[in-house]
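ARCHIVE CARD
SHELF: 3
SLOT: left
DATA:
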Amino acid sequence: MTTKKLIAFATGCGVFALLLARSEPGYIFIVDDANLLFHEAGHPFFGLFSDRLTVYGGTMGQLVFPVVLAVSFWRKREAVSFAASVIWFFENWLNIARYMADARAQVLPLVGGGDHDWANIFGRWRVLGYDTRIAGMVRAAAWAGMFAACLWVIWRWWRSRGAQSEDETWAFLKKAGN
């Protein structure tokens, strides 16, 4: 990885952090508007497999797209794009945590005014009274995941400075994963 790529990634992360700081907690304009589309599309898609999956489909739908991109970028050995997809995956968790924390209060406006997914899910699991605690753990995991992706890019840049080639670095990572 080149220093230019690291600088571009750091700049992107800085812009992302600025958006996060200036946005309503757990909701970033444009990014989460797209995530909402994936969420809503997930309900009917996963509902095709089972009626019981319909309520889970929204959350699964918004997580599938960043995972598919991350796998694709990993296979193409595009480290910065892979890390950005991982950050997008974990950024979704902030929005999911916000939705979870609203399970009992139900003050968030819902698309179409339908049922509250996480109130239904937590009700099924008999943990509705722990909605805000669970949301707090999901939020903490989101931040840890985004931070880990950033650290991985820095580590990868540091390792590549001493590597003879990009392929040598990827070979090291592949070997470390085995």
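SLOT: right
DATA:
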Amino acid sequence: MSDRGEAIPQIELSHGHVFQPDFALDGPAHGEFLALVDRHYNPSIEEKKHNKESGVTAINRGYAACAIPLVLEHNTPNNSFAMIWAECYGGSEAPEMRPLFRRRQRHTDDL
């Protein structure tokens, strides 16, 4: 009971899936794929405030370099590879990026 005499409901947490520690594609076995990710990356998508907060400026391998190959039904996480969700025009030396799966922006101050 709380101070006001109200019962606090018991909360049970569950999960749908727990990924194995080696789920991220960041080891030597994934070298060719990581080279592809790096080659098809446009650094112009780094200008957003939330991307810099992780301490890892380049987000070619996702936010905080998580390197997870994940797309969810309702959105594509920003810690997935940028080539999956990023969209930007190319520059003189940077490639154009078109998303395989669109990402819904949740931070309006990123725009």
